[in-house]
Amino acid sequence: MKRTTKQHNSLLFICLAFALITCLGASQSHASGYGIFVQGADALGQANSTIAHSDGPSAVYFNPALLTSLTGTQIEVGTTAVIPSRKFKSDSDGSREKTEDKVYFPSTFYLSHQLNERWSAGLAVFNPFGLGTVWDSDWEGNSIATKSRITTFNINPSIAYQVTPRLAIGAGLDILILDAKLKNEAITDQQLTGDGEGIGFNVGLQLQITEELSFGAAYRSKVDIDIDGKVTFSPSVQDFFPNTDVKTSITLPAQFTAGLAYSFSPNWVVEAGVRWEDWSSFDELKVELEQVSALPSNSVSYPRNWDDTWAFNVGTKYRLNDRVALMAGYLYGDNPVPDSTFEPAIPDSDTHLFTVGSELTFDQLKVTLAYGFQLQEDRDKEDNEYGDVANGEYENYLHLAAISLSYAF
């Protein structure tokens, strides 16, 4: 049966709104959902078990209280090659699809400076959320997602104070900038570009319980980001859908981490930790479009209903001599996405991260290398809030290869 113009316009609007909601939701997935641990090679080599101990300026990110344990002025720069692989097996015909091969390079900059015996300061610039997903334009789920690219930058100045010989505290400001470019192909090509910013804070403490045992804890607040953007359409439908402005907002979740580190000797430390993320705050995404006569409404919302997540990790660092140290770690994390809102832009599942690393010291220069293999458990999509589109099994894993260079003045 031939659709009327009104029906055609309404269907296009539904597809547009669906695309926006799906793709913008993906911006949050990379924190817990894909578990990209790339805030420095030293931490990656220990599966991020660096909340209660640290010997480098990446402490600005993990626990600002640890800045008081660093002497002089230290600078660290680093990057990580993140190589994701996501595969799909269709329930409808057994066909298989995989995302396009892409390599991403989230990077870090850290600076620490000891002001005096009690006060220290630091600065971090890093990518806390981001990366992307690229499916073939003609795959079975192209009405939900084809391309998603999210980039965020966090500028994080911090300060720390040694309260007593055994207790240190720290705090910092999170200035977060987001940039997005998202595409999906429902009835016709639609592309969203947008940007926004938000402000949050982080705090931390470190308690030296005994000479060998230390406890660390850190909290990073949620960040509300207002996003202004534009949606563009293919020329074939611009008579009905001219390019239009959009507004939305997302909340990046609060995070709490804690760890216990034990030094078996001056050369060997082991830390076990836990991380909690407040993904339950992401219960709905609402998008506002500039009023266009062809649209039945300029506002649409869609449920997410995500859950809080927990992760557990253990890591170790052993110094063979003054020049060489070895690291290893393991992390298990659950995922926030319930079956009811599981979809291919965020093919999330419980994850296992296995890591190794090595640190080489040359006087004032340190070179740290680390590798991580992140295996996500297979997961099935069935009929849910996204209907019966792209039902099937999803397989995901990532390779992480990090390098950091640090220099102590």
From TrEMBL:
Instruction: Specify one Pfam family.
Output: Toluene_X
Under the heading InterPro entries, the entry gives: OMPP1/FadL/TodX
What range does the record give for the signal peptide?
Answer: 1-31
Keyword vocabulary terms for this entry: Cell outer membrane, Membrane, Signal, Transmembrane, Transmembrane beta strand
**Protein topology in the membrane:** Multi-pass membrane protein
Where in or outside the cell it occurs: the entry states: Cell outer membrane
GO cellular component terms, alphabetically, are: cell outer membrane
The GO molecular function terms of this record are: long-chain fatty acid transporting porin activity
Keyword Glycoprotein recorded: no
Entry's family note: Belongs to the OmpP1/FadL family.
What protein name does the entry list? Aromatic hydrocarbon degradation protein
